[in-house]
Amino acid sequence: MSSETKEKIVLNIYENSMSTDGNNQLDNEECYTDVYHTSTTRALPDLPLREEEEGEAAAAGGLYIWRKDKPKLVILALAVGLVLMFLLWLILIILVFTYYSAISSEIRDVMGSNSETIQEINQILQAQENLRVEIQEQRNTVSQILQAQENLREEIQKQSNTGRGDVSCPSSWKCIGKSGYFFSTATVTWDEANTDCSSRQAQLLVLANKGEMDALVPHMDGKPYWIGLKKIVNNWTWHNGLIPSFTSWNPNEPNNAGGRENCVEMKSGLWNDIDCTIKLAYICKSIWFY
Question: Are 153 and 185 in a shared domain?
């Protein structure tokens, strides 16, 4: 309390004492003395202490307000978190959808391209199959014509040989049955053997039947010889176009070892597919008499 306030209190007490009767004058003076003494001696709180109390009160009030608003703040934080999470999920979904759309477009393009390619391949395969069928039909026709020609020649030969004895063979040829055969001593490739037989007015051996083959085996001395059988478009055919009326393959033959065995050798009556460039002896069959 300031000094001016204290003086005002003392002055008021004095004025009141003057307005009372004389009997109370002493009491008023004593009261004045007591009041003055009390006023001057009572310890009043200084300003710093009041400010500290006000600060504590303010802090207590703020703490109360914070505790009161805490649930609202928690709810607000959760709401903000949910919104952010939703936005993240939305962005992720958009990215996935965009990526999926791009991949789907590429897949459609590839499938469309593959579909066109497959269609072209199917057309090529169909054309190839049609060509194969046509070639097979032509081969069958040629084979039938050649077989008819062979039958006619045999019939003519039978008629011409009626009443005639065995026919003698030229030098270096062997007459076996009613045909002449040339057994070479030189070794050449299949193509060279075929060419040499043609130059001798003969053909590289074409076997009419198994009986003819069996008749030749004793004259082969266990050696391998080229015969006129060759693989054409995956089919074994005599070089004159005839289809074999029988076969005599070795066990597990033909096996096309190395992928280049397109010609045939015969040894002791058994056949084996072999590379056409290998050099072997060969057998020519005459076409000038049977």
Answer: no
- β 235-238/225-232 pair status: antiparallel
* DSSP letter (8 states) at residue 181: E
Its pTM stands at 0.48
Residues 6+ apart with CB under 8 A from 224: 265, 266, 267, 272, 280, 281
Question: Which tens digits make up the pLDDT trace of 194-209?
Answer: 999 999 889 999 998 9
By C-alpha distance, which of 228, 241, 229 is closest to 136? 241
The range of the structural domain enclosing residue 189 comes to 174-286
* Alpha helix (H) residue ranges in the chain: 3-18, 23-41, 47-161, 190-199, 210-216
Output the DSSP codes for 202-257.
Answer: EEE---SSHHHHHHHGGGSTT--EEEEEEEETTEEEETTSPPPS---BPTT----G
| pLDDT at residue number 162 | 52
54 in the same domain as 40: no
Q: Is the pLDDT of residue 226 over 90?
A: yes
DSSP 3-state of 188: strand
CA separation for the pair 112, 106 (Å, rounded): 10
Residue 217: pLDDT over 90: yes
What is the pLDDT averaged over residues 241-264? Answer: 92
Dist. CA 134–CA 148, nearest whole Å: 21
Distance of CA 214 to the CA centre of its chain: 56
168 found inside a domain: no
Taking the C-alpha atoms of residue 159 and residue 162, their distance in angstroms, rounded to an integer, is 5
Per residue in 56-65, pLDDT tens? Answer: 555 555 555 5
Instruction: List beta partners, residue 179.
Output: 176
